[in-house]
Amino acid sequence: MLAKPSPFTxxxxxxxxxxYTRKISVWATMSVLRPFRATDMFxxxxxxxxxxxxxxxxxxxxxxxxxxxxxxxxxxxxxxxxMGYVMGKAEGAGTERHGHVTALSVAPEYRRLGLSRKFxxxxxxxxxxxxxxxxVDLYVRCVNTAAINMYxxxxxxxxxxxxxxxxxxxxxxxxxxxxxxxDMRKPLPRDSMRRSVRANGRDITxxxxxxx
Length: 212
Description:
- The chain is of the alpha+beta class.
- It has helices at 7-30, 45-48, 58-67, 115-129, 145-153, 175-179, and strands at 32-35, 72-76, 82-91, 98-106, 135-141, 157-163, 181-187, 205-207.
- It has an 8-stranded mixed beta sheet, with helices on both faces.
- A hairpin with a 6-residue loop joins strand 3 (82-91) and strand 4 (98-106).
């Protein structure tokens, strides 16, 4: 039988945890948001191990860096460790011109520090100022409630449900929910009529073949 930890052990563990979280918070304050470099692909494996993070082939990442370098960025600690990254692109024409969030992920040890909000605010600004977009959109699995709640907190709402947008994760949940994705959008100042917002977006379903 394992012995019950002494009060002193509990105190030491609690103190060590406080020091660790304080160190992480300091790193977040001193961290830098900078453009994504090709060599960063060899530094973000600890982020891509996350279950919800979609990973791609090297050519896919390189294509983004070469075409939309101003929409790809990383957050880095003073020691050079990548804390998270975001990749986006601009697409569409006319009132459908918009920024798209292809990937956004933060390493587990750096979550709850506001990095995702910082990434999204930065990409929204680039979409508005550099590409004259009307909105920003992203896709998220219907079962990823944590991410959905986070994006709703950033001002995004469900525009439509896309059937079989993702491959099955094998979590044993409803296969339809695992594979379907929500198209979430946030209007930018140029969308003064808020055409990118639907009150009944969760009730509108389209096929994956109907989206770009």
